[in-house]
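Task: encode each sequence below as structure tokens.

Item 1
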Amino acid sequence: MNILAIETSCDETAAAVSQDGRKILADVVYSQADMHALYGGVVPEIASRKHIEKISLVADEALRRAGIQRGQIDAVAATYAPGLIGALLVGANFAKACAQALGVPFIPVHHIRGHIAANYVAFPQLEPPFLALVASGGHTILADVADYTQIKLLGTTRDDAAGEAFDKIARTLGLPYPGGKAMDELAQKGDPACYPMPQAHLSGNPLDFSFSGLKTAAINQIHNAKQKGETICREDLAAAVCQAVAQAIVPRMMEAAKQTGRRILVAAGGVAANRVLRQQLQSRAEQQGMTLYLPPLSLCGDNGSMIACQAYYEYQAGHTAGLEQNCFATLSIEEE
């Protein structure tokens, strides 16, 4: 089964072609990062307009690289939630039009489910059930993946996501967008002990996250140093922030594994590329005798492969839609 998949939830225009889910025949990504770097973050209106300009070219290039003719496409998929609503509508409407023109099913795919599916592409042996962490610019969640389309939310952020905190702290430090990568690189040269960072203690669900306090503390540290005429050590501050993010995520993931009894752990999303987080997840998993799957860096960010892969399993579960399918800026990973 050949699936053409479109991903336009934020500032990457991506298209991929999968064969029976996990075999990716082509994956093309057009990134707008350089353009949004001028503004220190993603400008939704600009992102939507660029998707409109590039989406046909990206889809055609994916088909060309895959060696697939339009008549050989068996279904068309697209991210329909969550994300920037204007950007989502561009991709989903393009995909629905393609499906209608070709007379094939349209498969709506949840963006976070797609991030999890990036691991299916990277690791052919991986199958549910397992515990998944998805950490990105807009999301930090823990989910119990009982099956490919049966997913239960265990914990989520109550305010800022880890990736959002990285980006805003990086911007205050004068680092380029996207900030997570720049912070990761600086952290390799820094001492996290130089700038102690707070940890949020939440009542209610102990698996929930909060990164607004960390973001505020780091930004205040930068502003206070500037007001006093002092020089902030960017390497040390980046190391402290990365350490704080890891210390917030890793223990909660281990607690979720204990509660669910899962021995297989999976990480996904842009923040899963952070080296401090990856190292600490790997260390704790080894200590507990668990199996940890970390996607290659190329599959941590938004891409078409993850949507093309998850689309196959959504199709198998009968999750197709018609032209009336809408897009949603926010939507739980549990929704089908």
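Item 2
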Amino acid sequence: MTDMMNMAINDMELDNVTGGATRTVKNNSLKYANIREGAGLKSKVITKLNNGTKVKTTGNKIKKDGYVWYEITLENGSDNAWIAGSLIGY
């Protein structure tokens, strides 16, 4: 239940996220967040980012599997990936 409340709060806060916005990984259940190659729970996990890691959004978002997924740019700057909105904050 807590995750659903966090998701709703984060999704409202992030509703106006545009490309280039910097956000912080924040998972209340674990010390990291799974980063996926596509939006959705069935997409392959390509890396894990620790809480507090800064990510940049591209402005793309998709609703899937009960979450709003945000496309982010990874540190190398050339690869994009996806994170659930409930796992990022300001």
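Check on item 2: Confidence is low (pLDDT under 50) at residues 1-10. The chain is about 15% helix and 45% strand.
End of task.
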